[in-house]
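Structure ticket #2291
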Amino acid sequence: MAPAITLAAETPKLSSANTGFMLIASALVLIMTPGLAFFYGGMVRVKSTLNMLMMSFIAMGIITILWTLYGFSLAFGTHNGFIGWNSNWFGLSHIGLTELWPGYTIPVFVFMVFQMMFAIITPALISGALADRVKFSAWCLFITLWATIVYVPVAHWVWGADGWAFKLGVIDFAGGTAVHINAGAAALGVILVIGKRVGFKKDPMRPHSLPLVMLGAGLLWFGWFGFNAGSWLGNDDGVGALMFVNTQVATGAAMLAWLAYEKIRHGAFTTLGAASGAVAGLVAITPSGGAVSPLGAIAVGAIAGVACAAAVGLKFKFGYDDSLDVVGVHMVGGILGSLLIGFFATGKGQSTATGVFYGDHSFTQLWKQCAGVGAVLAYSLVVSAVLAFLLDKTIGMRVTEDEEISGIDQAEHAESAYDFSGTGGGVIGSAAHSSALAAATQTKKVDA
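Resolution: structure written out below.
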């Protein structure tokens, strides 16, 4: 998030332009979660489609309420370097309609709702690693606990006014550490606890709908402009515009780099590779786009495209079942985007901090980025694994093997994504059809 930049003599006034822009940006970030649902939903097999969609959609309900009650207060209140608190924000009480976010020209409510959308999509990202095998009730409880114990403190570290990483000078424009490394490390921690899918590395587990994947990727790309450019919280000095441009540039570079790697390595340009490459570029530019030039954004995107394409294969080498490559794309992409700031920061964007290739060629910013990356990675990985372990030993995290084989959609939601018989996808529709069929059969017998 953007640091407050105001002169001591200035008194910010509410800007209707910046307020309107931030409300639009908030809506763009929200649409990323349904986009993620489609992206993930198309990548799984037919029998898991609805469960994948629901794992993202439920976050929009659960995290909204948590953020309203206490999440915002804990993440952005001031208390110490590790956690915040503001009793006036509990339940969003005692916030004036025109009360401004300190140092900015937008209301507290607008900043709060923008940050709410980040809090929603971050746990939803984790779901892609857990496809096919997690109880829906356990997932709901997990993201409730995870958002409280992991996301909220990390957001405070990175973006809170008294967060230790913020004060250290760690640059994270829009969520490389707080969102992507955080979610990717959490995904790795959970899958190491709950284990592999039935048939992992034996059965084909190909995406069932690549058009759905491309639709989801397109929605993510579109919404990401609000995610990134909106994180400067205004349009007064051109930094948000730089971030907008760099978001587009890095994403295009990453997509091309991923496809080139794929063609050289596997002999084809795939639609899944194009979608995944675009997401890898979006992830990598998220922390760095306000600090690098457009040429630097090309480098960030290209490096992330190749590195993430290579990283997704590590699950087969090391034997962890990251179903939809959350670790390979979000964790690896987030790490790269965060660390590359230490090389490509020009000092002419969001701050005067420069990377190794600019200014006095100092490693100072790189070491700061390493500190932020390492702390978030370790904390999220360990705490997420502990949470998964405790839930697995109490209520159980996984569905039964039979339910996994037959399909988690029917087991957990009593529905199927596609029904070509014309009877509907749910159990109610199926029951109604059965009753009608039985009645028709009985009538024929009587007529006979």
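Closing remark: The longest helix spans residues 364-394.
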